[in-house]
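Q: What would this chain look like folded?
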Amino acid sequence: MTLGPPPHNPMLFRRPATTRAVWAMTGTGNTGARRQSCCHTAWPPAESICGERAVKKHLAKLLMVPVATYFSTAVLAAEAEVEPAPPKQGVTPALPLSADRPAAYAELPTFGAIAWETEKLPWVDEGPYAGISGVAMDVWDDKIVLAGGFIPGGDETADRASRKTSRWSWLYDAAGNTWTQLAHAPDRREYARGLVADDTFYVFGGGKQYQKQDPPYLPHAECFALDLTRQPPAWREHSPLNVPRTHMAVGRVGNYLVVAGGNEYDYAEKGYSANTIRNTTEVFDLHQPELGWQVRAPIPAVGRGWSAAVATDEYLYVFGGVTWDETQNSVGVRETWRYSPAQDRWEKRTPPPVAISGWAGALFLNRYAVIVGGIMREKDKPGRTSYWSDLAWAYDVRDDRWLQVTGTLPPGAVFNDPAVAILDHTLYVLGGEGPKGSHYNYFLTGEIKPK
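A: My prediction, written as structure tokens:
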């Protein structure tokens, strides 16, 4: 069962101060039912008469109740003590990329290290059969705002056709360690992308499931905007893209919102093919919103999706990704490009040492793209064409060079299609997919420690 917020009932979750505390509360679920926990209405339970022991005692019972139950955990353990992500039953995951590090990675200069803490999201159930991936996310006012995503466990509504595509929106306050539920997005979206500009959170494109319908999945061009200055924040429709798609590279470059690449899912093409992968670039000028999205110079070479991307005041940087050839085989893209919307020009830069797709990154100190997760595709090793990556990378946009990052991501190589953001010196990694369709609700916080 996936644990999600009740509609029209804003909730706030606070992470406990101790590393061993477990909090639980109940609320009005989608069925309209309401259950009392042992702590009644007191929140947080640590301040109630029940105490931590009673909360722990009743937590197992609460998790068996088919209503909307809310709980949060603190840091699971120190990095070295985190248990590996559990695989699906009967699945033995292959060794991660760190167990067979590419020589090209080992030869890179060292950027520094990331000191990780591992937590779990309080508003979605655990993996490997639940979890979340493909969330639209960005930073706003020293907070993190997000919307949508693929939730294999569903959201407990009666919408059996689409309930595995999320409509949830959340605001995370790192200073207060709290999650606040915002208004539901106007429609369900997964593998959309999100950007913040001028106190507005924009969500672009994405896909939606339509199970037992024909077709059962569609990409969408609609875009939505969440006005974060209103109390409570409110959604509105935004100019639609010209090309519906998922898994795009996006960034705010000065006064421009840029969306590049992605996949226009087509069920007749089995979802992904040379006919669905896109090299389309669209630009939205925030100073001329009446123009809508303008189609600009396409990504050179091949179309691609599942690329990592960061933006500076001048350029959108696009790293790696995956494409499909004419024989319908997926092919990793080992390229770095940067795009100037002011000049409408793409420039090739130093490629990553290996081809990785499904990774994500954010810009640190306005100079370094810090990138994590994804899958490395390698055709040269017999019997092994892909490696799930638990490594972190850095790319210096000023000096155009790649750097290695000391250590690996806990609790393993289960971060394909994560959402990533940076606040100050902390990297946040939310959700992700692991081998054989497993998904997880991990929420990593990493202190970035450059040399």
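The longest helix spans residues 51-63.
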